[in-house]
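Re: beginner question about structure tokens

> Can someone show what the tokenized structure looks like for a real chain? I only ever see the sequence side.

Sure, here's an example I had lying around. Input first:
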Amino acid sequence: MGKGEVLLAIFRELLSAYGPQGWWPGESAFEVAVGAILTQATNWGNAARAIANLKAAGVLSPEALSRLSEAEIARLIRPAGFFRQKARRLRAFLGLIGKHGGLEGLFSLPLRRLREELLSVPGIGPETADSIALYAAGKPSFVIDAYTRRILSRLGLIRGDELYEELKRMFEESLPRDPDLYKEYHALLVRHGKEHCRARPRCTDCPLSARCDFVNGK
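And the corresponding structure tokens:
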């Protein structure tokens, strides 16, 4: 069985176990992009509280948020942690949006160019850039995170020390370039990482146990 077939089989098993995840939560592309920045180094609950603050203040749009000072943004997003750094990142991201004449202009860029532009923003690394490109812009850019690395290494599909870009390329060369597939697959890997494949794994009733090297002592 080739790598693509194995990855698709894992996807089907996870989807059967957990069902569609409906990621990423957000009422607009801008909200999704802001959420990707705010969830850095924290959990989604904290990021969601910060987003709720922005909504309550009526500033969850590029135009409205641009009118706030960095200090005002920091105050509103405090629940997300590292709020001063994240306020600077949001201001830089707003600058990128303005450079391209708006969010639609930014997201209309070809994927390679969009990713380069996102990575040029201080504090936006590959995982955040790919999250924005995939979930907010709808581009086929697979997101690699700690859950993905842990799960695939325990399944024996990777060593675990590969570079981010190497793992990203593995998924994108093995799977159809379908953003909906990428969204659901990444969301299911996160769900599985939280449910079973934790740092201290909960292997009982794991839907991937039959193919897992960790469970089977390989």
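Each token stands for a local structural state, so reading them left to right follows the chain. The mean pLDDT is 96.
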